[in-house]
Specification:
about 475 residues; alpha/beta; TIM Barrel; M1 Pyruvate Kinase, Domain 3; Pyruvate Kinase, Chain: A, domain 1; 3 domains; eight-stranded parallel beta barrel; six-stranded mixed β-sheet
């Protein structure tokens, strides 16, 4: 099944999309990656969804990527007498460790770590920022606050602390259990929530032990400030605009998104733009024009993937949401302006042999009648470097490793194909020509570009490029090895 677009679509699974028929329909509508949200569903439900995805993969013959999104620490207030209280602007309100039910003057905040990190002047946001508190005095077990923005506060609402780096690890005990469970299941990517510092990513990488790639969610101001260091040790990035829009002024989010996407592309690491992309489609079969423009903007910026959350997990129109996103992507990528933006945002000369090879492959493909670039790769590095070039022609990523093929399905433009082990370059050329024909990218009379590393089956050895016909008889008669 060949996609007629390059940007990938991530669809979150949930109550509205947990059976075989719906998951297959989502895949056929355009979903390339399925997200398992570890905040919702127990291990048995997650395992069942994983099993169904792999069945769809087997039935359709296409590698499918699975992303497990870890919950991260959840900071919440306690409960109130009567379930809620009304906070008036300018009033005083205390957060403390007292287990008594709260009222309009105080409530429990069962997170001593927050009190230890707060300073007078710090901001606390409750219920996705609907209530804003300013700390006037604090200690190791309390914070006295002024209500800057009031409203109704109710049981167990979430708390955000935007201007403080909290002494909390990104992984809770639940996350560690979930991480090991999904790695044993065989997911391809782990999305790490609550990232504040590079050390958070390092812990996840150590626990994963190479069983899954690690994708850092950028949803806190501290992560934005430390982004370069976080990117350097992450395999991929998610721009999680929901929490960013709570903890930062909303007008700051679009330029941050654009900047982070560009940095990810320069580093040849996949980036997902997520949250509220087609949110009205939770209840409506049609998106708003603003939502369509939002999706289009992320695609014009060069994002590797765009993501649906509740739209596909809990909404009334999950397949329609994926179809809409697919249609928007196809329309944007057919716009000449899109190609101009991709070409203009391409980086300058790179330093390694692999960089030079993939850059040359793109230039050859764009100046001659080449139908596809075929990349042989063990780890996927060559294919990802090729995708960074954003070439005009399709990119076929060939690998003998099913895990690599699945993981690469998240990356812009990569059509992943399982190929047998090869020991000679001529066999690699034959396999590439065969794949290009079978997958519908070229005819026997066409030409393709092949990149590979010799000796084979050694990561990081990309050092050869060849223009070859798709007719195997011509390949065998060429006399080259």
């Amino acid at each position: 099944m060949r996609r007629l677009r390059n940007v990938k679509i991530v669809a979150t699974l949930g109550p509205a999309s947990s059976d075989y028929e719906t998951i297959r329909a989502l895949f056929e509508a355009g979903a390339d990656v399925f997200r398992l949200n570890m905040s919702h569903g127990d291990h048995a439900e997650i395992a069942e969804r994983h099993k169904i995805i792999r069945q769809v993969e087997a039935d359709t013959g296409r590698p499918i990527c699975i992303l497990a999104d870890l919950q991260g620490p959840k900071l919440r207030v306690g409960t109130f007498d009567g379930g809620e209280a009304e906070l008036e602007e300018g009033a005083q309100f205390r957060l403390d460790l007292d287990e008594a039910e709260g009222d309009a003057t105080r409530v429990r905040l069962p997170h001593r770590e927050i009190f230890e990190a707060l300073e007078p002047g710090s901001t606390l946001l409750v219920n996705d920022g609907k209530i804003r508190l300013k700390v006037t005095d604090c200690g190791t077990d309390f914070a006295d606050c002024e209500v800057v923005v009031g409203g109704t506060i109710s049981n167990r609402k979430g708390v955000n602390v935007p201007d403080v780096v909290l002494p909390l690890a990104a992984l809770s005990d639940k996350d560690r259990r979930d991480l090991d469970f999904v790695c044993q299941l065989g997911v391809d990517w782990l999305a790490l929530s609550f990232v504040q510092r590079p050390a958070d990513v390092e812990e996840a990488r150590q626990l994963a032990g190479g069983r899954a790639a690690v994708l850092s969610k950028i949803e806190k101001p501290a992560a934005v400030k430390a982004f370069d260091e976080i990117l350097a040790i992450s395999d991929g990035i998610m721009v999680a605009r929901g929490d960013l829009g709570v903890e930062l002024p909303v007008q700051n989010v679009p330029p941050i998104q654009k900047r982070l996407v560009r940095k990810c592309r320069a580093a040849a690491k996949p980036v997902i733009v997520a949250t509220q992309m087609l949110e009205s489609m939770i209840e409506s079969p049609m998106p708003t024009r603003a939502e369509v423009s939002d999706v289009a903007a992320a695609i014009y910026e060069g994002a590797d993937a765009v993501m649906l959350s509740a739209e596909s997990a809990a909404g009334s129109y999950p397949v329609e949401a994926v179809t809409t996103m697919n249609n928007v992507a196809m329309e944007v990528e057919s716009d000449p302006t899109y190609r101009e933006v991709m070409d203009a945002s391409r980086g300058g000369p790179k330093e390694t042999t692999a960089d030079a090879i993939v850059s040359a492959a793109r230039e050859i493909a764009e100046t001659t009648d080449i139908k596809a670039i075929c990349c042989f790769s063990q780890t996927g590095t060559t294919a990802v470097l090729t995708a960074r070039e954003r070439p005009h022609v399709p990119v076929i990523a060939l690998t003998p490793l099913r895990g690599t093929a699945r993981r690469l399905a998240l990356t812009w433009g990569l059509h992943c194909v399982l190929s047998g082990e090869v020991g000679r370059f001529k066999q690699a050329v034959v396999n590439a020509a065969r794949a290009a024909r079978i997958e519908g990218f070229a005819a026997a009379s066409d030409q393709i570009v092949i990149t590979a590393g010799v000796p084979f089956n050694q990561p990081g050895t990309t050092n050869i490029l060849r223009v070859a016909p798709c007719d195997e008889r011509l390949i065998y008669s060429s006399g080259t090895d």
